[in-house]
Amino acid sequence: MSILKIARMGHPVLKKRAEAIADPTEPKYHKLVADMLETLVDAGGVGLAAPQVHVSERLVIFHVPQSRMAEERYKEAGLDDETGEVPLTVLINPVIEPLSDEMAEAYEGCLSIPGMMGAVKRYTHIRYSGIGLDGEPFARDAKGFHARVVQHECDHLDGVLYPQRIEDMIKFGYNEEMKMRMQADMDAQEGEA
Ligand code: NI
Predict the structure, then answer these.
(1) Is 6 within the bounds of a domain?
(2) Which domain holds residue 91?
(3) By CB atoms within 10 Å of each CB, which of 37, 105, 167, 175 scores lowest?
(4) Does residue 28 sit within a domain?
(5) pLDDT grade, residue 80 (50/70/90)?
(6) How far is the CA of 190 from the centre of ligand 1 (A)?
(7) How far, in Å, from the CA of 110 to the mean position of ligand 1?
(8) 152 C-alpha vs ligand 1 centroid, how far in Å?
(9) Are the beta carbons of 72 and 61 closer than 8 angstroms?
(10) Which candidate, 90, 106, 3, 14, places its Cα nearest to that of 52?
């Protein structure tokens, strides 16, 4: 296994539509997923799409650990933690279907845009389907943070980065600055109560 170089915003590989994978059981995809997993763990992210490691093919990996980061983002989104932990998932040639019109705004980051975060609206309840590394099709319903992660990762396969979905650019900035401001806003609200 090896840690792969992550493409950053501005690189053409992040802007184009990735190709469908004909045979996910080919050994090269096992190696790709092993390397992507090592890269994801090293970078400390929750998801990674193949184009982010310079492979323009329709494959994403993600997991939702019961970590503090996930819990904080649930709170930001005003969602409960009904979806809980999601094990590491390899999703190939994914299709996303919203199960309701409801959308929620929450802050996202991306390993291709290090050090920054922005508020993005996503569907709160989706069904996603695709193929696993074993070549078997599967489908899952997802809500909240889980649904958000899948929508973010699958956007990468269509050449879309989260800043393209930010509606109010005042909600885009450097992590340290944004977190300081959020804390100040929370303190002010507590003061008013
Ligand atoms: Ni990303």
Answers:
(1) no
(2) 12-192
(3) 167
(4) yes
(5) very low
(6) 33
(7) 4
(8) 6
(9) no
(10) 14
